[in-house]
Amino acid sequence: MSLRIPEVTKHPNEKFAIGLKYIPPDLDLDAAESISSCAVAISPSVAGGLAVVGNVVIDDDTVSQMVKDGVNDVEYYVTFLTTLSTGSIYEDKILVKIRNK
Fold first, then answer.
1. DSSP state of 5
2. What is the pLDDT of residues 21-40, one digit of tens each?
3. What is the C-alpha to C-alpha distance for residues 19 and 53, in angstroms, rounded to an integer?
4. Fewest CB atoms within 10 Å of the CB: 40, 59, 90, 93?
5. To which H or E segment does residue 63 belong?
6. Cα gap 59→75, rounded to integer Å
7. How far, in Å, CA of 66 to CA of 68, rounded?
8. 76 and 49 in contact (C-beta within 8 Å)?
9. How many CB atoms within 10 Å of residue 74?
10. In the beta sheet, which residues pair with residue 42?
């Protein structure tokens, strides 16, 4: 089975939040399981490239990160390393395509 990586296209001048919603069976809110922390990394890391703005936001079952900038025609992977209250750790990616169109 192959996992599908979500994709987002943005203009180099745009700034907005991207994120992930965790649903059962990954997160069991009925059992009081929660998201404890989340770290975000962007690759590739290039001058003038896609950058984070502020901190990761955790809202119940969702993690999000504001992003800005990016070099036209470059594609970036934004990796979310999410830790749950039970100790489970998820590493998920969003592909961000920068297009000046």
1. P
2. 999 999 887 888 999 999 99
3. 13
4. 59
5. strand 62-68
6. 27
7. 7
8. yes
9. 16
10. 78
Task: Measure CA of the first residue to CA of the last residue in the chain; give whole Å.
Answer: 34
pTM over 0.90: yes
- pLDDT tens-digit readout, 39-61: 999 999 988 899 999 999 999 99
Q: Are 40 and 91 in contact (CB under 8 A)?
A: no
Residue type, 41: A
Query: Residue 3: phi, psi to the nearest 5?
Result: -90, 140
User: Domain 7-98 falls in which CATH fold?
Assistant: Immunoglobulin-like (2.60.40)
Q: Which residues contact 99 (CB under 8 A, 6 or more apart)?
A: 9, 10, 11, 72, 73
